[in-house]
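We modelled the chain as a single entity of 123 amino acids. Its sequence is:
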Amino acid sequence: NDEIDSLRHRATRALFTRDDVVIVASVSCIYGLGLPSDYLEAAQNIQVGSHGDINFYKSVLEKMLYDTPENMFDLKRGNFLPNYQNNTMKIWPPYETFPLEVCFDFKTGKISKIIKTLSAQDE
């Protein structure tokens, strides 16, 4: 179930990023997460000011097993969609309710802005 998978990823992310989290769950809810060190090694910190262009992050996300849909209408959790014309990329982490739009700056070669969208089709 997509919603259960999203909740599992949100809970795991909260364990690594917050100090005030305790999770009570059945073994079946957390089965398959693997070692915490593997989970952290697979994570990529994407923030404003990070170096890298659209092709760099495309490669990073592919290594993290994110998929690329045919068009923005098929975008779902665990997907990303580069827009070379606008130098942006939609990324939908599995723990987020909606995708993020990452804007790249041609001149600096850095991420200039990250926008939380309200749907997969936001422009």
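As a brief sanity check on the tokenised model: Helices lie at 2-17, 27-30, 36-42, 54-63. The beta strands are 79-83, 88-92, 100-105, 110-116.
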